[in-house]
Design a protein that fits this description.
184 residues; alpha+beta; four-stranded antiparallel β-sheet; 8 strands; 28% helix; globular
Length: 184
């Protein structure tokens, strides 16, 4: 039986100094801006918070073999959920480094496979908003892209995050696992 919960996740969080332009978009277009910090989900849903200590030990053994890597947030895309609902997101590149990291973490918790169940497999993304209607999505995509300045940052850790039930349902970092040589 799976022990997954939607109150926890394993994520990459961009450095706080890069948040302002991301949050400027999210504040206007993302209905989840209050609950989630800017992030790239690696595993969601995840294990209960009570299992974090064990998970950190397991993830540390995996992450020591992955050196920190740089990613670039440059281009916007969208997912279509059904006929008229869309999510707009930034594509972290290179995708391959994040797919490798996600695969290695997923191998530790193979039942936490929700992010891998899509037709194209795991797609790293940083959600910035939702919209209805293809014309609206394309208009927003063009507007965001026209004003966007490329961001670069180094991924040197993964974060295990947790949220309580409403009204205290804002995700917060509980612990981190360093990548590569930082994880000695």
């Amino acid at each position: 039986m799976s022990r997954k919960t939607y109150t926890t996740a394993v994520v990459i969080i961009p450095p706080v100094n890069l948040w302002p332009p991301i949050q400027a978009i999210r504040c206007e277009h993302d209905r989840h801006v209050r609950r989630w910090m800017p992030h790239i989900n690696l595993i969601y849903p995840f294990r209960p918070k009570e299992e974090f200590e064990f998970s950190v030990g397991q993830f540390s053994r995996v992450c020591k073999n992955i050196e920190p890597f740089e990613i670039k947030l440059e281009e916007f895309f969208f997912f279509r959920h059904n006929r008229d609902c869309y999510t707009i997101w930034l594509a972290p590149e290179p995708k391959e480094a994040m797919v490798e990291l996600q695969t290695m973490l997923w191998n530790v918790v193979p039942d936490c496979d929700d992010a891998r169940k899509y037709e194209g497999g795991f797609t790293p993304h940083l959600s910035v908003g939702q919209a209805s209607g293809e014309a609206t999505v394309l208009q927003l995509l063009n507007m965001f892209q026209a004003d966007w300045k490329t961001m670069l940052f180094t991924v040197n850790e993964v974060c295990l995050i947790w949220r309580d039930n409403p009204p205290n349902d804002v995700f917060r970092v509980v612990c981190t696992v360093s990548l590569g040589h930082l994880n000695l």
